[in-house]
Amino acid sequence: MIRFSIFLLLIVSGGGLASAPDQAEPRLKSFEWMSVEEWFQYHEDDKAIAEQGRANLLFLGDSITQGWDWEIWQKTFAPHGAANFGIGGDKTENVLWRIQNGGVGKLNPALIVLMIGVNNFGHDNDSAEDVALGVHKILEEISSHWPQTDVLVLGILPYGEKHEKFNRDRVTQSNKLLADIAKDFSYRFEDFGAAFLDRNKNIPTTLMADLLHPTAEGYQILANKLAPIVDEILSTKNNRKTLGQAVKDAEVVIEGRYREKDDHSVDIGFPGVSVHFNFEGNKLNLYASSSSGKNLVDIYLNGKHHNTLEIKNKPQAYTLIEEKKEKVWRVELVHRSESWHGILNLEALEPAAGKLLSPPGLPSRKILILGDSITCGEAVYRKRHCEKDFYWWDPENSYGKLIGEKLDTQVHLVCHGGRGLLRSWNGKTDEANVGDYLHFALSTGKDSPIWNHAQYQADLVLINIGTNDFSEHAGAFPNNLAVTQAWLTLFGEVQDAYPSAKIAVTEGPMLEGEARNAIRESLQKAITLSSKDIKHLDLKVRKGNSCDAHPTAREHKAMAKSLSKQVRAYMNW
Predict the structure, then answer these.
(1) What pTM was estimated for this model as a whole?
(2) Band of the pLDDT at 11, cuts 50, 70, 90?
């Protein structure tokens, strides 16, 4: 009540600053056809609907949205569980305020239809660029509150006499900007304005009696244009399935560690995590986002690399398959990035034209590889100009994944660049090192979500760690006894997590000279002191090239060849 009284005071006194299209503001001006009190009552009514949370289809806008012909609305949109949150006279800033002040409630609509902006022209004489800023801000708010909701942005309808060229041009310019903005958000844009113009570009009064608001005939034309698109979006979305649910329904298998969230989407941090499934059809979408906008996903179709996706930080749809003819596809999605690059969220698969089939079977043998950046595949794919970026990580062609191919095994890469047994590459001891992220579902810090080891009981745990403990940037070599004890502690934790697994260990291939001798000495002592059967695997020094000290793709192949022979003999595979 206090806030409402202040608004009235501003109106009566004539106070208040001019509003900005991208700054949330409630209605501050009464009109003959609607007072401020009535506007707030409309908003309270919408809030009550929002609190019920039952709308599957939500319309947002001004009087053109509010004024839908009742019979047309009931026939066309009401069956979809539609709610109309249009209020006459609203500008972009008013819609923004309504969303921020109770318009969300418990709603989780499948689709939002947004048409707004014409009153910014008529009431405030805003420019096309101003309106675009306001709509952009509204879409930011929508995507924040409803990241899984599809949005259909409608162009502003033409209004006024033909000779009022300024208004017509302003609408045209706005709609061009709105189309680009919708695309940036991966939302759909449609402009139905041409349907309201005759051959001379005039607006027939049978369609808009006041040259602004559609008549019943005008709304029927709008419904005829809009309904098939709404039906298409909602029908397609009905086929959308969260990754977590697809795993539960045995339509998808995930090779690697992940965390299923409360909304049944899947978070992935470790590199090389692979999503496997079969699809029959000709169009398939993936809904995904990245916490940083830097996560990469490789797409493999029928065993061949098809594309690499740069996943943006805003949830959006990515087309995995779009072909003219239907066929059966074996699909594999491989996460290329490390946890510290960002966390990948795979929200859902959407068979837009087709269906998910039973997934491919994975090998019965299982290997878990504990390591650092070498195991993560850093710099396997290096560019000639030697300017490293997040494309340089290629776990699919790292020694670990190549071992899996050679031995026909599943492989989980549990690794974090720059970390070691006792300390990080720069000598820090307060970060999560291998004994910590052994237990993580995602390696995001010491408070990372914990992995349930029962989900994947390895036959072999291969440990390749220690490079960063003896890095030239970490300072003096750590105490030999401390390193030996760290090995023993790690062996015990691995055995507790994987009681039936054998353990094999090697030192980092980038170490040489005194560093290599020091880590080998502590490792041999630990193996001797351990009560467990632990196999030391011999690995030659691999020092990369002048571009980067990490092993090259060729060196990873050589490492895989050597290690797979030793593993085969050790495991009797």
Answers:
(1) 0.76
(2) very low
